[in-house]
User: Fold this.
Amino acid sequence: MDATDRRLLDLLRVDGRAGWAELGERVGLSASAVRRRVDRLSARGVITGFTVQVDPDAETGPGVEAYVELFCRGTVAPGELQRMLSAVPEVVSAGTITGEADAIVHLRSRDVRALEDALERLRMAANVDHTRSAVVLSRLVHRSA
Amino acid sequence: MDATDRRLLDLLRVDGRAGWAELGERVGLSASAVRRRVDRLSARGVITGFTVQVDPDAETGPGVEAYVELFCRGTVAPGELQRMLSAVPEVVSAGTITGEADAIVHLRSRDVRALEDALERLRMAANVDHTRSAVVLSRLVHRSA
DNA sequence: GTTGAAAGCGTGGTGAC
DNA sequence: GTCACCACGCTTTCAAC
Assistant:
């Protein structure tokens, strides 16, 4: 796992179907050397697979997304927050953060109504004082990680 | 966008590097027919790209995450923003939003140094006036969707 | 252990139907 | 949508570092 491996991963993140030869000339290696490194990364479990990125709107119509900042009273218990957030299906990702807010939550739902319901469930959680939401107008990037 | 297209998307989700001929025999089509369908899905924006799935922890340990708000001067060009953001491997997801900021970007990198580099690339983009970052202290939820 | 070069062959990409 | 074509790139082998 050296700098070349990391460069290969970055290049493959941008284009997962890039040819070995093309990757090779961008990192200064031959095609066969590139393939061996990628195979090794797959065997080690660093690379778990290759996939296609699909626009979520294409399958179930245009949904609604929002980023919600959580402001809590007193101390924040990460464990309790995690249990609460995991119980809300609309939560795509979440984490405690630095800055004014205590945590940020990425929500995705099929319509505004479902979004409001999810928001209300977040607000009901223990220690949550108030929230600040930003609705997503247009999604620019979404990588499945 | 029929049942065959959906089956192709499902197969590509499992293996994004599958050959056209292999895909063809699994959906009952020829290789060139498959390629035309995939090209059409890409042109229509249903397929936004191909990428590699990397185990975040296996790569270089826990890593660092951050949410970055982008504040732009004057009008925001979503297309230009999208091109810029897609070129930065550290970008997990991003979208234009309501509220004070114009856009929010979810970043993940292997260490603070790489995070700073990615941040600098965001700031260099046209019309970006300044940014406000919140570093993730502990990841609470992450669903691969 | 790693790599690069060459040969054979499978596959992608394109055009005609 | 299929079939046929050609060129390119992948895969493998082998020798060398």
Q: What stands out?
A: The mean pLDDT of chain B is 92. Chain B is about 40% helix and 30% strand.
